Amino acid sequence: MNADTRRGLGPRWLAPLLALFPAVLACIDVGNRDIGFHVATGRAIDLLGAVPRTNVLSYTNPDHPWLLHQWVPAYLFHRVDATFGAAGLVALKALVVFATFTFLWLALRRRATTWGGATLWFVLAASAAFPRFLVRPFIFSMLGLAIFLWGLTFAPAVGARLRDWRPFLIITAAAATLTAGLHAGFVYLWIVALAWAAGVGVDVVLPRPDRDPVRWRRAGLVAAWLAGMAAASALLLTLVNPYGVEVLLLPFRFSTDAWFHTHLVEYRPPPFLPALFPGLWGSLVLGAVALAGSALLRARRGTLRGAHVFGLLALGAYSWLVLKHQRIVYPYALVAAFVAAPWTDDLLGLLRGRARRVAVAVAVALAVALGGWTLHLWATHGSPGLGLDERQHPTRILDFVESQDLPEPSFVSDGWSGAWLWRFYPARRVFIDNRLEAYPFAFYKGVYQSIRYAEPGWREKLDSYGVQTAVLKYGTPGEINFLEGRPSVRQRMLEDEDWRLVYWDDQGEIFVRRDALPPGCTRCADTRHFDPDRMEGSRPTVHLVQAEAEEILEKSGPSVRAYTALIMAHWIMGRRNQAVLVLDEALEAFPGSPELEAMRMRE
Q1: Is residue 288 exposed (0-12), middle (13-18) or buried (19+ Cβ within 10 Å)?
Q2: Residues 6 or more apart in contact with residue 7 via CB below 8 angstroms
Q3: CA-based angle 600:479:593, to the nearest 5?
Q4: SS3 string of 366-430?
Q5: Which helix (DSSP H) or strand (DSSP E) does residue 470 occupy?
Q6: pLDDT one-digit tens code per residue, 190-235
């Protein structure tokens, strides 16, 4: 499989200039739920002076084996956070994304010959991947994948001398080996390696007019290359990770489990929303068209070789994976651009002269338009900045827990457990969190989810772990559909005389056992008659709902839900003037709120 090493896409210094575009897209406030437990993991390493082998972040499963496959990035996140805070974490992420796309463009520069194909696929990759530009160890795996793809372009042609293999061997082996020690996402790189080796194998066995024995030597070198990378990666993993190569099985374990598909969004197929995900759906369509067109063209010319087999295997595998699990969109974007840009060049090569120049200009214009639309999505649907995304991070709730010194241990929704650990570990630990490898599967389903969905025995399970405080997110659409109208633990606790709803805002609510309530909790409310999760009164006592909403506004602080409850109470009791005054106050506090604006229209 001959590498296309023509250099027609400008000087090397252009790569970092173009990579500024995805780097800007990476400047999004920290909002993903995982970063908290990564920072806490690094903090635990500092405190213990060693890599934990058991689940030290949890009080429910402290002795359970923890296959910690990403401790090196976690420790880096901890040190950056301790020095620079959330702004430093965002800057680190942007720097890694910048380096990743720099190497991607360098790879495209060696594989593609027209600005149209390379630029369009570069922008498609950035547009598709930017929703996954998260502060997670995953970003280091993607940097390793981009370097690996760049290294593949140094593969020499059939008949090359052994010394000509050195750049290829050094770059790809180093990328694979180092990535293996950082994150289990290393397996995504191996999919590409195996597809490339298969393409070389096809080139070796295809009939040729000459009987050149050198091509068999090339196959042997590739086989040795695969074995060497595997051995070196396994050795490094054994040295840096207490569990060695076992951690590489984690992605397969999670991606093949139906339960995780049901309960975790990132293991579900991507939504078919081309306007919100133009890079993903555009690259899937364009990739299929480019593959079919280039294959037909090469077949007619008799030049269909192992390069197309490699592309078909690599793009086919990643397209299948991304259509099953939306979390794969980042590696898919890199591989799709690397594979499909030369195919697009094949199609542009059908044109000549002015027609070709026009086609290239159109492709570049499409890339610019897509880049502009992606920046619009980044500005309107993301949270551009260098801090915390307060829409997702429960800062006020955590502040309340800390200021009122609520009792331990706590049952915290898994979506907030990372933020909880980030703020409180080691003083407070979690019931459960999103480290899927750190808990028994039976605990997720038989204990945590059983409590979350208020299945029979939920009280006894909380009692068995001595839970005193419950910090709960509101129901998600998936959870509501799953319950089919049945009450969740939030409704059950509201009805239970042993629990007191002391705080709620627009993100979630806090319950505390009445007999464990701190005497100094001056800001603890006592909501009994209004359910802020379902936004309805739990009993037909409207005047009490009004009183509780006013108490929440005073003690928990302003929130759209509290204002809505108060306005509705006034309306139901016929106090239209008071309702209008409260609505005006609410719109002043939350200008542009869709819920409040809708109430203004109904008025």
Answers
A1: middle
A2: 109, 110
A3: 20
A4: HHHHHHHHHHHHHHHHCCECCCECCCCCCHHHHHHHHHHCCCCCEEECHHHHHHHHHHHCCCCCE
A5: strand 469-473
A6: 888 888 888 777 766 665 655 556 666 677 777 777 777 777 777 7
